[in-house]
Structures are given as C-alpha cells and as structure tokens.
Amino acid sequence: MFDSPEVQALADEVRRLSDLESALALLGWDQETAMPRGGAGARARSRGELTQIIHSRWQADSFQRLLESAESSVNGGADRDGRLVKEIRRRFDLRVRVPAELAEETARATSEAQSAWIDARKASKFAEFAPHLERLITLRRRAAEALRSGDESLYDALHDKYEPHGRSARVRELGETVKPRLIALTEKYAPICRETRRDFLERSFAVDQQKAFGERVLADLGYDLDHGLIEVSTHPFCSGIASPTDVRVTTRYSENDVKSALTGLIHECGHALYEQGFDPKLAGTPGAEATSMGIHESQSRLWENQVGTSPEFWQHYLPQLKQHFPDALGDVELDDFVRAFNIVEPSMIRVDADEVTYNLHVLLRFEIESELIDGDLTVSELPELWNAKMEEYLGIRPANDAEGVLQDIHWSMGAFGYFPTYFLGNLYSAQIYRAARQALPELDGQIAHHVSHPTACPHLPSKSICCCPSC
Ligand code: ZN
User: Fold this and answer.
1) Region 348-355 average pLDDT
2) Is position 13 annotated as part of the catalytic site?
3) Which of 82, 151, 292, 400 could be cross-linked to 74 through a Cys-Cys bond (beta carbons 3.0 to 4.6 Å apart)?
C-alpha cells in the first residue's frame, strides 16, 4: 500500500490503534441507542480503560521509534507517504504535549462539570455551573499553553483540534462580513414568515410511516445500508464506527412533527455519506478520516439545507410524502409546504434555529468563548453579555439562563474552539453547492424530475432510483 516499508510499519500500527478506536466507538453507539440506564457505571469503566490503553500505545517508545524511522524514510517529502507521516506526527504531538496529570484532571473536571451543567440547566441557575466553568477554562488554557506553537493564540491552539490550521482572526473577519447581512435578512423575512401557514407540519404523522419515508430518502441520497444502520437516540448523531464500511446514523421521532426527524436524518446522512465515501484502502489511517470538523459539517448542511429544503427536492418528494400521510397532507400545496419548511424566525435555542438565524447563534458563542480564553471576560459577566448579544443580533432576550447561556453542552465538555466549525461548515456547504450548480447546470431540474423505478436501474445496480439519460 505505502511505498516505504517504514511508512507501512507505522501505518500498520496506526491501523491497529484505529481498530481499538472502533471498539470504543461501538461502546459509545450502544450507550446512546440501546444500553439500559443501569449499565452506565460499567460502561464508563470500559470506555475509560480502553481509552487509557489506546493513549499508552500512542505514547510508547516503540511508537515513537516507528514514527521517527518513517520520518527519515520520507525525508519531508510531499507525496502520499510523506503527507501521511506528517499528519501522524501532528496527532502524536497533540497527544503527548499535554501532560498526563493535566489530561486526567481535565477528564475529572469535565465529568463533574457535565453533571453540574445538567442540574444547573434544569434549575435554570447559571451560578451553580459557574465555578465548574471557571475551573475548566483554567485547565483548557493550561492545555493550550502546552499545545500552541509560535505566536498562536491560546484560543487558536484549542480551535486547531477541530479545524486544523484554522485561525480565529479569519473566523472573526468572516463573521463581521456575514453578520450584518444575516441580521438584515432576518429583519426582512421574519415579519413575512410570521404570516406563513405551518400548522400542517404539526398534524398527526405515524412514526412507522416517518421511518419508512426517511429510509427511502436516505437510500435515494446514496446512503448504503449494507454499510450503515438507522437507529433512534435522544439527539441525532452519526457515528463512523469503522469508516467507510460501518457508518451509522440516528434521529428522533415525534408524532406531531414531520420536519424534525427527517431534517435530522438528512443532516446525519450527509455526515455519513462523507465517511462512506472514504477510500477503503486507506481505512484506519488519517487518509480515511475527516479533514476537519468544519468540512464534516459542510457535508451535513449541504444535504440538509442546500438540497433538503429546496423547492426542487420537494417537487419530487411531496407526492411520495403524501402517499405516506394522505390524511395529514392531502390538502397541502407544494408552494405552501416549501414555505413552511423554510420559515425564518428568531428563536432562543440554537439547535432549533433556521438556516438564516443559525449562524448568528454560533457567532455569538464564538465571540464569547474566544474572549473567555484569550481576553479578560469573566465567567460572572456571561449571562448578561449573552442576553445583550441575543438582543442585538436577533432582537429577542432570553427570559432565563436555561434558554440563554446554559443551553449548550459544549462548554461543560471543555470543547472551546468547536463552535466556529458550525459556521465554517455552513459557509463551505454554500460554496460547494454553488460550484456544483455551476458545473452541473441541470442539477436543480435533475433533482425535481428524479424518476422512481420499481426495479433497480441497470446503470446504478445498488440504487433503486436513477436519473441517468437511459432511464
Ligand atoms: Zn452535524
């Protein structure tokens, strides 16, 4: 596979570690989809032990020797062998630069902060979570000191984990460009959308029919169920257990909401299509992993927003959805359905936000967290700053901490630097789709006139639907 035997030996060891990571991912998947509540303690121990084994294998002298001899064999080259070794070096440095005692203390503090966050959010009392957040900020700043190179800011050293080589200065610049336009769009469309009919999206939709329709859509989009699985969980997610050959997704269903489960599924399907598309020959190496979290998110947002809310998509799918729900949707016209699916409306909760207001939620968090890490913003100032920014960007003010500063899990996990990847993912997805439309002028029409075939198309044997000219 690799030209140099030294690189091959390093790749083989990385693959073995990836096999252990797969076992860890499967334990996580089971925990979210099937594990009985009483299994939590034993599961935490299993995951902790396995994590420890993987970490010590990365830190072993034998691993360092494999890495160094691979480095001398590629001698800084930029071919495939060289790029692989460089990426493994980057990951190795990230793992070993943070001292073990700091990593352990952070793991403990994070687990305590997460339970404190759950309780504080329930009680809507930020003050109960504040001391945990302060401790996590201190610990993450210490990790950033260990991780940063050159004149990199502390925040950038943390952001780098999710968006390698990304810079917060660039995110800020893009944010300042996009923010006033998003605010103007929201102010323009929110009043119109207030008058838009949407009641039919909240009629009665039997869950088994929602499942059948969702599976049909995902199969059409190219999600390969021989290498995938669709399950139910509290929060939708995608898990690349062993990409590209085992990539799973979840969603959650509500009988009175036909939109949420489906958009969740299409979003996670976008993540899964990305991972199912990795080169099987590179499986288990960084060559078959996401470039960055922003790029990963661009794939989910592309299918969810650029394709899944478009009039062309629904021109094709509304008749099929009506076959599943003749009582609920029989009287609904295409235009009304598409408008209801695309409502723009300022709302308190990021995960429920529409395509236009979503980035404003994310930019607010990015501005706050970068100040917490790099600036002198204090934790006690957070709730007020959050509410003031909500008012400035979205024209609404949270009534309490639960629908304001306490709503997201990220900070309780110590995941500072993650939020910008949502914003970048949205921008990347729009750029990719624009390029696709330019390269394929018939794209919109092909989506709208996609033809369903009762039998498999001979030109795409694994798909039941095809728009090739011969069909
Ligand atoms: Zn996503």
Assistant:
1) 93
2) no
3) 82
